[in-house]
């Protein structure tokens, strides 16, 4: 008979380290993957509010993940990962049941918080009452749906705060939405490059003036930085401010001639949300500080004449950026005009590396 007291102890096995998954991906992402599909732990514009009516479901892809937007009959909006917790079938092909969605595959019902409220095939199973589907924090403002995209399940949403122009009651604005077949980083490079206005948009109604040569500087702010011409102001696309708050955005002004209506300069707030590594959702709000009867004149003039012209300017950007090779920013010869481009690239590269490091650090705790 074997003396169990003398049996050699079984070798201990190290406990496997589990790297936290990035929300919606089921795996950790490298710094390169985060940079390509978008930084997390930020608010992003998702869709214009009018795209999701009461009682409707809309599928979107953002930051490389499929999501489902749906409203209940009272207009309350929810945003879920488009994946049933049972067998991962897309909820977007299921049925809208008012305050919940039923998966078409086996009828599992998930509410707006991501909680399974019913499993018709097996009532009372352990899945019922479990928060098993990713549900995002959402906000609606400026005619737009915003969502906080977390890095991990432990990420806590930051306070939602709109850019200054969009929360100022004295500012009138019009939203603009487009999807471009190009990486989101190309949009950021483009808007941090004011000099392209004097060339690409030279024949536009608002950027025909000024010199085609200039000197630039970076000026730090408490929320980001200005990239601006040192020898020209108020003539063309002469400056842009990159801002970090609840969300990343750019703020800029373009001078307008008097025949463009009352209100002085024309302001633009711009944001880009990655759809995936090769496609982007582009959001602009065209703004003007104007009130009283002049406000109505400006809004009428914009709708009847100026909006089409602005679409034309935006199309000039889209055509060029979509024509760029996917690695267009890999082998370049930059010069002084590109200080803003270099700065934003360094910032986002550092952010992506920090988020990838955060995932590794969380795994070792």
UniProtKB/TrEMBL annotation:
Lipoprotein keyword on record: no
InterPro entries according to UniProt: Cholesterol_7-desaturase, Rieske_2Fe-2S, Rieske_2Fe-2S_sf, VanA_C_cat
SUPFAM superfamilies with a match to the protein in the record: Bet v1-like, ISP domain
Keyword hit for Transmembrane helix: no
Pfam entry (one): Rieske
GO molecular function: 2 iron, 2 sulfur cluster binding; dioxygenase activity; metal ion binding; monooxygenase activity; oxidoreductase activity, acting on paired donors, with incorporation or reduction of molecular oxygen
Annotated Rieske domain residues: 43-147
Keywords, in A-Z order: 2Fe-2S, Dioxygenase, Iron, Iron-sulfur, Metal-binding, Oxidoreductase
Transmembrane segments: none
Listed name of the protein: Phenylpropionate dioxygenase, large terminal subunit
